[in-house]
Design brief:
Largest sheet: 4 strands, mixed
Structural class: alpha+beta
Number of domains: 2
Strand order of the largest sheet: 4-3-5-6
Low-confidence stretches: none
Distance between the termini: 46 Å
Shape: globular
Number of strands: 6
Radius of gyration: 19 Å
Mean pLDDT: 93
Order of helices and strands: EEHHHHHHEHEEEH
Helix content: 40-55%
Strand content: 5-15%
Amino acid sequence: AYKDGRARVPAYLDDHAFLLDALLELLQSEWKTSHLEFAVQLAELMLEHFEDHERGAFYFTANDSEELIHRPKSLADDAVPSGNGIAAFGLQRLGFLLGETRYLDAAERTLRGAWQAITEYPHGHVSLLTALEEFLKHPEVIIIRGEADEIARWRDSAAKLYAPQRMVFAISSDASGLPGALVDRKPIAGETVAYRCVGTHCDTPVTTWEALAAELSAATD
């Protein structure tokens, strides 16, 4: 609950994980570096306050919240997807976007910590299986740099190609203070440029929509 500039109730794992996932989706619609910074803050809070560093995965409550007789760690999906599943999914995607191995390692620890539960009842752990799918087959990350109108056109055209394991981010040339691997996704003066990466491997950047479209189409075949 949030009122008059103050949070009244401590946030749980699900609050952090779902908001992280939402921010990554929002960044694909409209890039704002402040949204990325917020996503990084959420990821850091999850690692610091919620992760079970001994057995993997995340607790539902933070380590600085009220002390409980039993600190729950929910793995299975319920009326909503599992907080652990969404946390692993979001941390992986943020990790691939930024090239941040700490996030990727935390996601892997979550999947390993939940492995027995997943194998015993896979139908009840679909969100964790979704994260596992991108752990085994890394997602595509497309970074488009250039002038605002042109990168929006490229982004919208790329979105027409159905590829659920693809993220497309259109970042204007004047965006500054980009963290992690995004520092190396530099704009080229007078041109629109696209960087296509799968996991931590990136192809040679392309400067025409036709070249990018050919790469994207080949990846979806």
